[in-house]
């Protein structure tokens, strides 16, 4: 998805079309709830997330809303992670 956003951004820029993608980590949604109900998995996810919590849907939707505003008119070809710092923390396995 990261590369697709970049390729489409380059291809469609001449038509004034911006392309970005959003990379969420665990977000508290109905689809994720069965996983998050597993206390062991929930604690593992929180431990691996620098912010120490699960994301909320509004945190993702706010980013998507921002990307559709004129304020983001010069942002294209980016993948923005909504992950509480998970990707910058690395994939450490004890």
From TrEMBL:
It comes from the Eukaryota. This is Uncharacterized protein. It comes from Pistacia atlantica.
């Amino acid at each position: 998805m990261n590369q697709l956003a970049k390729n489409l951004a380059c291809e469609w820029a001449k038509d004034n079309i911006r392309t970005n993608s959003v990379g969420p980590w665990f977000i508290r949604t109905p689809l994720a709830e069965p996983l998050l109900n597993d206390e062991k998995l929930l604690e593992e996810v929180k431990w691996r997330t620098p912010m120490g919590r699960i994301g909320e849907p509004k945190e993702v939707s706010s980013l998507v809303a921002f990307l559709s505003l004129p304020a983001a008119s010069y942002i294209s070809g980016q993948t923005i992670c909504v992950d509480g710092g998970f990707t910058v923390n690395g994939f450490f396995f004890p």
